[in-house]
Amino acid sequence: MNNQDLERLKSVIRDVPDFPTKGVLFRDLTTLFKDGEALHIVSDELKSLYTGLGVTKVVGIESRGFIGGSILAYELNAGFVPLRKPGKLPAETIKKTYNKEYGTDTIEIHTDAIDENDIVIIHDDVLATGGTMEAAYELVKSRNPKKIYINFIIELSFLEGRKLFNDDVDIKSLIIY
Amino acid sequence: MNNQDLERLKSVIRDVPDFPTKGVLFRDLTTLFKDGEALHIVSDELKSLYTGLGVTKVVGIESRGFIGGSILAYELNAGFVPLRKPGKLPAETIKKTYNKEYGTDTIEIHTDAIDENDIVIIHDDVLATGGTMEAAYELVKSRNPKKIYINFIIELSFLEGRKLFNDDVDIKSLIIY
Fold first, then answer.
1. Residue B38 lies in a domain
2. A60 chain-B contacts, CB cut-off 8 A
3. Does A70 contact B67 at a Cβ distance shorter than 8 Å?
């Protein structure tokens, strides 16, 4: 991404102190998404990262990952697959429980959402500590797709979420703090 | 929409009996969204309904409404605004509590998400009894935009959700059961 676009995007991300808990500086993308021009810049930058790779499915993590993920699927002529909280998907699922700072969380995917012919991007809005994406990656990997790419709009590099993944996992972020 | 496209879309919607509760036939759009060609047909049909109307914001209702809503925003060069469950939006919000079959539910929108210069589409995946969309409509209307359109992919017409709205409210659905 060129510097002008990067600065344009950063200028519409809202910093919210102490959300969701005290001491956390939350990078709020709603002020970017509501700006039609900024939404287009993000969408076209995402597309440019993955054009020509034969991507067949984009998996979005509930619920903020549905926004960029579904636009990216549309742009790449791929299908969109929601990865959801427990009990929300109506057909047969596989699930994964993972540790969070306090307690655990669980995510689910339909068993028929991904198969071994797929080339998949898993998308979420922000990479923080990485626990949710690690669980998502393991769920998708269990369906044996040909290839998995991981994508974020924002990466909070000081939280070192990348360290949860092997070096050969392809992880790309548009904006790094 | 031409009949061929309509039949193509209907053929990839999965009917799930007794979800989320016994006696309900759930129209599952995940099997449509994961089909890149079907996702494109839906997206382009949505776009064709609202092209040339000067739409500036598309509001998607958490979380399934984020999928079609964000693609539609992208296609119309509009911004995307998430309408979320309580406690998820980090800045100042207004909220609305509404009745459901059992108990109540609440949705929120950022106070700065919509203003009086906006022309807005509120999008959700399915119109059932209409309670959620009615609350969403009142929330958006309280921000005094120039115009509000309401859109669904699927309308379950036998549940008569349209009756909650005045006749002058513009409600469009792609697929009616």
1. no
2. 67
3. yes
The pTM assigned to this predicted structure is: 0.98
Inside any domain, residue B58? yes
Residue indicated by tokens 């064709």: B48
pLDDT digits (tens, 9 = 90+) for A79-136: 999 999 999 999 999 999 998 877 899 999 999 999 999 999 999 999 999 999 999 9
Q: Is A74 within 8 Å of B79 when comparing Cβ atoms? A: no
Residue B64 among the catalytic residues: yes
Report the 3 state secondary structure along chain A. CCHHHHHHHHHCCEEEECCCCCCCEEEECHHHHCCHHHHHHHHHHHHHHHCCCCCCEEEEECCCHHHHHHHHHHHCCCEEEEEECCCCCCCCEEEEEEECCCCEEEEEEECCCCCCCCEEEEEEEEECCCHHHHHHHHHHHCCCCCEEEEEEEEECHHHCHHHHCCCCCEEEEEEEC
Residue in B45, B64, B75, B162 annotated catalytic:
B64
Let me know if residue B70 belongs to a domain: yes
Q: Which domain holds residue A64?
A: 54-176
pLDDT at B34 over 90: yes
Q: The domain that contains A155 carries what CATH number?
A: 3.40.50.2020
